[in-house]
Design a protein that fits this description.
The structure is a single chain. The chain is α/β, with parallel strands linked by helices. The chain has one domain. It is 31% helix and 20% strand. It is built from three helices and six strands, in the order H-E-H-E-E-E-E-E-H. The strands form two sheets. It has a four-stranded parallel beta sheet. Strands 4-5 form a two-stranded antiparallel sheet. Strand 4 and strand 5 form a beta hairpin. The radius of gyration is 22 Å and the shape is globular.
Length: 159
């Protein structure tokens, strides 16, 4: 019984070994018809977090990010549009099925402190990058999740 189980397991591994690469090949896959908007870093002026501590390699990688993401997405989606963070406006997301945020747009409201009208206490208010009524499908990459999402009330960095 144990020998038969071993042979079945080996046969499954052998079949997977020879068939999975065929399924993963770009020629075998069809592109999705989803329209994608990629909001990414301008290679001339990337938004590098903690820029004062970034190495030259970090800057190099951020300058290459937009082209690398675009090339990857073009392999899997029929329609991919690239826009740099500062050039993005929320109405651009209305023309696509999903927006990928790899960079932040210009803030609609800058960060700062505000006075509570009732208590008079100062509280910190983060920058807001999307309007309160933004309801389009979006994926936010890395530090963009809390920076873009939390001002809208999204609990993206609460894990």
């Amino acid at each position: 019984m144990k020998r038969r189980t071993l042979w079945v397991a080996l046969a499954c591994v052998w079949i997977a070994f020879w068939t999975l690469p065929l399924q993963a090949s770009p020629q075998a896959a069809t592109k999705s018809s989803l329209r994608v908007l990629l909001v990414s870093h301008n290679p001339e002026a990337p938004q590098v977090p903690f820029a004062d501590m970034a190495t030259e390699r970090t800057w190099e990688l951020y300058r290459e990010r937009a082209a690398a993401w675009k090339a990857l997405l073009d392999q899997h989606f029929e329609s991919v549009r690239l826009v740099y963070g500062p050039d993005y406006t929320a109405d651009m997301s209305n023309a696509v099925d999903v927006t990928l945020f790899d960079a932040r747009p210009k803030p609609l409201r800058p960060s700062g402190t505000v006075l509570d009208p009732i208590t008079g206490q100062e509280t910190y208010q983060p920058a807001q990058y999307l309007p309160d009524d933004f309801d389009r499908p979006a994926l936010m990459i890395a530090e963009n999740s809390p920076l873009i999402g939390e001002p809208l009330g999204l609990k993206l960095d609460w894990l």
